[in-house]
Amino acid sequence: MVFWKRKREETNTPNSSEESSIEPSELFDDPSAESADTSETLDPSNKTSWWRRVLTKTNELLKTDIRDLWTAEGRLVDDEFLSELYAILVRTDMGNAMATKIKDSIYDQYRARKIEMENVLEIIRNEIGTALKNKKAPLKFADSGPTCILVVGVNGSGKTTSIAKLAYRLTRHRNKVLLGAGDTFRAAAVEQLKIWSDRIGCDIVLGEHGSDPGSVAYRTLQKAIAENYDVCIIDTAGRLQTQNNLMQELEKIKRVIAKQIEGAPHEVLLVLDATAGQNAISQAKGFSQAAGCTGIVLAKLDGSAKGGVIVPIAEQFGLPVKFVGLGERLEDLAIFNPEEFTKALFQ
Ligand code: GDP
Ligand code: MG
To answer: Sign of the C-alpha dihedral, residues 115, 117, 120, 126?
Structure first.
């Protein structure tokens, strides 16, 4: 049986900044930790089925549309072929930069020669595989003392829901989890997290509407240290009066956390909405810089049939995609695995 529970060493002080990484790749293979729910929604424990669903359009473009470029065996690699191929690649949502990289690679290797479809697919697979290769990173845990995870992102991206899903996972794997309702800007946000915590059965530190989120972070960490929690997860606002205020506030929350536990926050997760356009992505860049993000949670991937969007997101942010959100239920969170993703692209 696999537990996603970090080791606790009783002799260590809670302030130790040493960190360890646990590979939770088998998180979904532990039947005792999974719900028996096999309803029609995407089931993250069935990797093949959810990949197939979120990659429907991307798969179709890569296979059917690319195949249509060949009317006879072998096709000459010329400007016409390259621009037709480029147009298809862009439509997969894998991004202009990746489409250009693939086009250039084909040009370099096959210029003025004939190419088969298998050669093209192989090059696509290699380029995407290389781009995502270093983007695999399991959740980081403190070696001793509470692990602190800060969650940031624009309003509506899916922060609070993702926190609930993550807390649920961790709780199911025998971690003592504490939530910090740090989005004090919206009254409903605190209430929303409280409802989730009741449902999960984990503890929460609440913040008054309009109160200082730094103080919520402070109280959450104090409680986590004093009462030996394994993990605390802190929610933040996605919007304030000005964007500038928000960035300053995130920096302040980070400083408050770092003062409590050296090396914390151990993770700063940026939640992105997979269905949002390029504008939302650029907006999120500000968060990434101000909060020093360490990983991405790509929420609402179930709302997109073009999961290819993971490629430009991972590339643009230079951050690993740690989790993907696949629905609104507590169970709808999966660990992102680049190898599985690259394989599933061509299934
Ligand atoms: P926040 O403002 O960033 O905290 O975003 P919320 O967590 O409140 O989520 C905004 C909306 O997106 C809510 O209606 C959520 O139920 C929904 N949502 C969040 N994650 C997912 C997901 O993975 N899939 C789907 N379909 N909806 C999601
Ligand atoms: Mg929220």
So the answer is: negative
